[in-house]
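#struct-help
A.M.: can someone run this one for me? Single chain, 295 residues.
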Amino acid sequence: MIVVGGEALIDLVPVAQPPGALVPRPGGGPYNTALALGRLGAEVAFCSRVSTDGFGESLLSGLHAAGVDLSLVQRGPEPTTLAVPSLAPDGSAAYGFYVEGTADRLFTLPEALPAGTRALALGTCSLALEPGASAYEALLRRESARGVLTLLDPNIRPALIADPAAYRARFLGWLPYVSVLKLSEEDARWLGGRVSDWLAAGPSAVVLTRGAQGLTVRTREGAQYTAPARRVAVADTIGAGDTVNAALLHRLSGPAGPAGGPVDWPGVLAYAAHAAALTCTRPGAEPPYAQELSG
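D.P.: on it. Structure tokens below:
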């Protein structure tokens, strides 16, 4: 079992017609990661607090259709978080958020994860917004101490971080509990650190996504591997990094993961690059299914 913890929200995605229109689509980095894992055929559970409003029901329906276990989902009457992406000509997205008083911020630490949990993924808004952020941090520390493989994707959203210096310090405090750190080049620049320092703090590997330049991993042992991005017609990049998370977890949480033996990093990165490329060909966060990656 892979557990993905964090927010589920609605992206209000701009569309060409009619001018200025916004179309609601399921989103949130953790939500997209869980959805992608389900579509890839992984045994996955989503751990979050989701609104009982219409958006919340729609979000859970999408996960259920992908085969995601919802037994760890907490519910509340507060509204669903809304995100408004603005798209650049190359399809990249920046985000504005409506987060005050929303359901996912009130997440509380679950008593236990399901028996057989092998991996835990956390990141994005859920680690920036209190009081839920402290509960997710406690979950990270507890499950790392139990030997669970942990993946952290900070997926920085500057608009949500009131005190950047405090967040950067908190990020460094998470690293001893992280098995794999995955982040974009933009995240790395915002955080301002060095990969070598992050590896020394705890993770066994740091995976850096580099847009059209592909993906690179550096390991604690000093190895480095790169996979090129696949050339595709890009609709937008929404959900591409989350799909990378899912692909990494799907490949690393088995016997050949960081705790189980040598990792075929070139193969893992190529698989993640393929999955992310397919996501980029579709508007919104629409990760691929396992059969689409079998060719």
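A.M.: thanks! The CA atoms of residues 9 and 81 lie 5 Å apart.
D.P.: also worth noting: Helices lie at 29-39, 54-65, 132-145, 164-174, 185-191, 195-201, 240-252, 265-280.
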